[in-house]
Amino acid sequence: MEQLLSYFVLLVVFVASLVNAEVHFHEFVIQETPVKRLCRVHNSITVNGQFPGPTLEVRNGDSLVITAINKARYNISLHWHGIRQMRNPWADGPEYITQCPIQPGGSYTYRFTIEDQEGTLWWHAHSRWLRATVYGALIIRPPLSSPHYPFPVIPKREITLLLGEWWDRNPMDVLNLAQFTGAAPNISDAYTINGQPGDLYRCSSQETLRFLVGSGEIVLLRVINSALNQELFFGVANHKLTVVAADASYTKPFSTNVIMLGPGQTTDVLLTADQPPAHYYMAAHAYNSANAAFDNTTTTAILKYKDASCVTLQGKSLARAIPAQLPGFNDTATAAAFTAQMKSPSKVQVPLEIDENLFFTVGLGLFNCTTPNTQRCQGPNGTRFTASINNVSFVFPKQNSIMQAYYQGTPAGVFTTDFPPTPPVTFDYTGNVSRGLWQPTRGTKAYKLKFNSKVQIILQDTSIVTTENHPMHLHGYEFYVVGTGVGNFNPNTDTASFNLIDPPRRNTIGTPPGGWVAIRFVANNPGAWLMHCHIDSHIFWGLAMVFLVENGEGHLQSVQSPPLDLPQC
């Protein structure tokens, strides 16, 4: 087997050399590492002892060969968020969907090529709550044959900002407690920028990140929401931000004071250092669209002008940074206005004739308990929290991954292909919903798509438990966001407002709280592809489903063979 893998690597290197691309080899060792935050040391799960993990920098057309070695005590898998993985679901990473997890002491090599993608993406663990600390940036630059960004101005420097969440305890223990009690998981204790909470938290000022800029410089900020459970507002004090890309797709540039990112989303902005020399806070705090508890703290870093005066005492800076003005925590109007400005730079090829017209209700729910208010039923009124799409609460398989079972032709006991294209009952989705509709059914259900079928999905938020912005992520694909609105989607009137000319291309999009969003894509990537809410407390409650995209004709329209080192369950 090792000899065959060596031949594969040599072949990848040879092909890459023919197209002036590069093959990047990395070893990711997953291990426990002492990490001190908020005055306390925790043995956190990291990659190569780094928190956040290593930044991967490649060019469009390059290939990556990343060997993950699991020296931690938990099963793990890694996901390369936003990479389409054409014909190669085996490298996608979500545990029990495209692979069995890498068990402690095991390893697996992810091999994939960047195909026609440029911009800011990221990678993270896709096993339970391990991505709380196992994540990093994935930067894709233009190819050497055309190395320049299509921006209105050229940045002098780049800064990557990973916005995260930190628990002052083991995140896996937080998850396990919530799974046991059925209640909502405990909220985080801090937000972070590149792993550091910033000035406004205890024991954190010394490590607050500072980024130097010169007056007049143009800076490209690559902002990634790698938080586990929270949409975030981000801004820089007294500075305008020009949005130029999102989810590794270029956008029509527009200016804003603040950006909003759901978990999983990325946004590239240009900042001009045109203010008086000083220290300016870069800050992020919650956008909370649900009627639920949330972490209301603020993480900060500092944009420091090189010629800013600074008074020190015993070597410690006393310069006070100018505070950033962020929207209110529940400012849905600002969040919606920001998202509405996203457009592609020019006309794009949106699918017009639709083969699969799907309507998905997405939201929370409650499972009733035979004996309420016991230790296992600590949700509202003695219930257990759940979540669903079209009233199906997704259950991850355990004995095999869906992709392996599908490829082997052995789906029995692993999954079924009867996921409903519409909800089983039509109701006032955003109104006062009868309590009889709050409890979904459980299942591991997939929906089959013909190769090259043109798909439209209406993602409809519901008011069951609470309305909420659900950042929905589709693996293996990018899609066009052609419409959005408040209330219940009306197919007779709302389609007239669809943008079929220059809609933005995304891999993750939020459902407006109490509203809907419409996406379209062509199912030209065969395999098993997870669609889920990127709020991790929601995915373990069941807010997920799987698309099975069938092979087309011939080798180039079919899933490639699984690698020999694919982990077994």
TrEMBL record:
Organism the protein comes from: Camelina sativa (False flax)
What are the residue boundaries of the Plastocyanin-like domain, all occurrences included? Answer: 30-143, 158-307, 418-552
Q: Which InterPro entries match?
A: Cu-oxidase-like_N, Cu-oxidase_2nd, Cu-oxidase_C, Cu-oxidase_fam, Cu_oxidase_CS, Cu_oxidase_Cu_BS, Cupredoxin, CuRO_1_LCC
Keyword list, A-Z: Apoplast, Copper, Glycoprotein, Lignin degradation, Metal-binding, Oxidoreductase, Repeat, Secreted, Signal
- EC number(s): the record gives 1.10.3.2
Instruction: Report the cofactor remark.
Output: Binds 4 Cu cations per monomer.
Indicate the secretion signal residues: 1-21
The record lists the catalysed reaction(s) as: 4 hydroquinone + O2 = 4 benzosemiquinone + 2 H2O
Q: What is this protein called?
A: Laccase
Gene name in the database record: LOC104768917
Where is the organism placed in the taxonomic lineage, from the top?
A: Eukaryota, Viridiplantae, Streptophyta, Embryophyta, Tracheophyta
> Where does the record place it?
Secreted, Extracellular space, Apoplast
